[in-house]
User: What shape does this take?
Amino acid sequence: MRLYLKKEKSIEVNKQFSDMPTTPMPSIKVSQNSRGRWLMIGTVVGVLIALCVGILLVRAMNTGKPSLSQAGSTAAQATGTAIEVQSTLHPVSTSTSTGGPAYGSPASPTPNLAQPGVTHGKPHIGGPFSDFRGEYGTPTSQGDSTNEEFWVDPQQTIDITVAQNDQGEVTQLTVLGPDTWNEQQAQSYCTQFLPDGATQFQTTSNQIDYHSSVGTIVLSLQSTSCSLSLARH
Assistant: This one.
């Protein structure tokens, strides 16, 4: 009997609980203000990270490169060294004279060390070419590296062409006189260029041979010109 009553009571209690309305658990809702605030914080953090990365990249690219002041100083030192080397190799005169190009200028002629500038001995065949410069001045024209021409008089009626060897010794000369000359006048003018002590030993119609201290000299004659040449030196 007691068991039956207990069962009845338990059935009633269960019915009472089953008839009670069930209420669902409330869900947690995130407000719109909180979401916007977190989005802004994330954006700011991303921008800061990007800035830091950019600064690191710029520093890495500039590592090892000289600054502008250092580059300017290096360029100035290099330029000064180049100017010093150039001035050592090719010194340039600071003279303001207009008589000719400054030493070291590209227009300056290369001096021939085998040819002295001017000497004042007697001009003659077999002698130094510099004696002709001393007597007649600067050549008026130049045929090649061994041939130069002089006008003897201001009226330019007598022309002398002189050839020389590598030692600056005259090996041949030709005299062209005015149209009024004859062979005798040409011979008389040319013999002044024989070396001292030369002696005549052979004569043909238009040629005279001489013995001399510089070797055998041949004098060739024409109506208005003559030439002297060394047959053996």
Notes: Helices lie at 2-18, 32-62, 68-89, 130-136, 183-190. The longest helix spans residues 32-62.
